[in-house]
Amino acid sequence: MPEYELSVIGAGRVASQLAGALHTAGVQIRNIYSRNSEKANLLAGRLASFALSGDLATAIHSLPPKSIYLVCVADDAIPSVCQHLDVLEGLVIHTSGSVPLQHLAHSRTAVLYPLQTFSPDRPLNLAEVPFFIEASHAEVLEWLYGFAHLLSPHIKEVSSDTRQWIHLLGVISNNFINHLLVEAEQLAVDHGLSFASLHPLVLETIQKAFEISPALAQTGPAARGDQTTIAKHQQLLTEQAPHLLPLYNLFTEAILKRKKE
Ligand SMILES: NC(=O)c1ccc[n+]([C@@H]2O[C@H](COP(=O)([O-])OP(=O)(O)OC[C@H]3O[C@@H](n4cnc5c(N)ncnc54)[C@H](OP(=O)(O)O)[C@@H]3O)[C@@H](O)[C@H]2O)c1
Prior knowledge:
alpha/beta; Rossmann fold; N-(1-d-carboxylethyl)-l-norvaline Dehydrogenase, domain 2; 8-stranded mixed sheet
């Protein structure tokens, strides 16, 4: 296997953070490819690597063959991007929670999935992030353990089947919770209230869930069975934010059902 020198495909949230951390760890990032030349130039400039952009089928000829390609593109684009890379006969690593390794079985492939939420210009301490890995060959897996340890000590090998469940847990516990906060922020704005005043409540909710288990931590009108309060909330939403009523009812019913179990 080649040592730690690679090309990065994609210049979005995950590409920027992983490439930045790998660069800091001493990995040579030879190329950054993005179909968007501005993004490729920006990231390549930070990492002292070469920027490539435009049509991947053309740009591919400027990538070194038999190298390592870290593919950080949208899930739906991974199979087609990897198919292009196959002519280079290297090791293709993707970072998705949901794309099975078997979808790329025609070449040497691996997965390096970070269980964290990435946003532009929001640096993360990757050493605290769990990475779930998988590889097509035993020697690739051995190499990947060493490579992933450049980013974090929390490395675990899992199958594609297990990884899709981990990803689903991530969607529920991050994307869905965040969406509820989006709606709470909008309601706060609409009624001239402070979203920031929810900060201690939300922090305590998360801390308590991990300290004593979320099942034991549930409070609120549905957990208490306060039907009058629930009816008042339903009335408020019906009058002023009807789009939230189905969500409110769904959660209320789910909490009431848990309470009965
Ligand atoms: N964001 C997270 O929190 C997170 C966490 C763990 C794993 N991941 C995984 O990491 C991967 C990248 O996610 P991300 O959040 O970094 O996404 P992102 O910020 O949206 O960046 C996606 C990158 O893929 C490129 N791209 C999209 N479609 C393409 C196509 N058809 N051909 C070539 N390039 C294409 C985009 O180019 P343009 O800029 O030109 O659109 C961009 O460079 C995904 O597999 C995702 O599931 C994400």
